[in-house]
Amino acid sequence: MPVPLSTLFSAAGNNPQPDILSVVSTIDYQDRKYCRIGRAKPFRPMSRFNASAVQAAVFDMDGLIIDSEPIWQTSEIAVFSSHGLQLTREDCMQTMGLRIDEVVEFWKSKQALADVDSRELIEEILEKVIESIRSNGTAMPGAEKTIRALHTRMPIALASSSFPEVIEAALNRLELRSLFSVVHSAQKEKRGKPAPDVYITACRMLQKAPEHCLALEDSPGGVSSALNAGMQVIAVPHPDHRNHPDILKAHLILESLEDFSWPAP
Predict the structure, then answer these.
(1) What local confidence, expressed as pLDDT, does residue 156 receive?
(2) Overall domain count for the chain
(3) Same domain as 238, residue 162
(4) Average pLDDT estimate for 95-117
């Protein structure tokens, strides 16, 4: 039987346990009281986080587990440039968290790329991404620690917008595949994030109701996807997205997974 997250975060209305959380203080944000954990800067009341209900955890991948967002951006910029579309990293932030087919269609709808085959663009980008991940992929700070901590206490899943080939390359590179009970790609769904489909399916594969699953996300669309599925959400956003309205809807916001603590067994 999994140890509930109440051992990490206190139940609604109680104080965080001082032996678990290194730094705890209250701050006032928009006339409401919030709790600060370590370097974390949550913008949701702790009372909204029902830790005792959590029976499983579902992780996003890109930008949360593996530092692949720069890899995606570099690959997209190179491929689109070869077809006459000049993008910047700031441009790429607009499509963060989307499936690559949705990224391609997003830019095709805004630019003169009608004559370029979408499948060709997707395959070129994927080839570059997979090659880079296999040779240079690195874990995000605190990711492995968090995955292993939760794995010992509850079933965990991965719900990613990436193609299965990218997921496989990333998990193999980081040697984390064996820790996940479920690995699911939004490419197998009719709709990608922010639609809830990928999270609903992941919860079903875990044989857990969404309201009993915790999602860990880094993108605005991913947070919306998990919330739309009925899950509780911890967001670990890119610095450029920390004040995004959808990120602020998460139950808890951390600067890094290094701030995610768990008591010793």
Answers:
(1) 98
(2) 2
(3) yes
(4) 84
Strands (E), 15-138: 24-29, 32-37, 56-59
* CATH code at position 23: 3.40.50.1000
**Are both 132 and 108 inside the same structural domain?**
yes
Q: Which domain holds residue 242?
A: 5-65+139-259
Instruction: Give CA–CA dist 101/254, Å, rounded.
Output: 29
Query: Is the whole model's pTM more than 0.70, yes or no?
Result: yes
- The set of catalytic residues is 60, 62
Helices (H) and strands (E) counted in the chain, each on its own, are 8, 8
What does the alpha-carbon distance between residue 169 and residue 145 come to, in Å, rounded to a whole number?
Answer: 20
Q: Are residues 114 and 175 in the same domain?
A: no
Query: Model confidence over 208-225: pLDDT tens digits?
Result: 999 999 999 999 999 999
Tell me the pLDDT band of 69, cut-offs 50, 70 and 90.
confident
Claim to verify: residue 121 and residue 35 sit in the same structural domain: no
Provide the 3-class DSSP secondary structure of residue 174: helix
Closest C-alpha to 129, from 67, 41, 84: 67
Average of per-residue pLDDT values in the chain = 82
Say if residue 254 is in the same domain as residue 126. no
Q: What is the mean pLDDT of residues 158-163?
A: 95
265 within domain boundaries: no
What pLDDT, on a 0 to 100 scale, did the predictor assign at position 262?
Answer: 54
Q: Which residues contact 206 (CB under 8 A, 6 or more apart)?
A: 56, 58, 155, 157, 181, 182, 213
- Residue at a domain's end among 99, 119, 136: 136
- Looking at the fold, whether 84 and 32 belong to one and the same domain comes out as no
Terminal Cα-to-Cα distance of the chain (whole angstroms): 14
Kindly state whether residue 264 falls inside one of the protein's structural domains: no
- Tokens 């951006």, residue located: 73
Q: What is the pLDDT of residues 41-52, one digit of tens each?
A: 444 444 366 778
How would you class 213 by CB atoms within 10 Å of its CB: exposed for 0-12, middle for 13-18, buried for 19 or more? Answer: buried
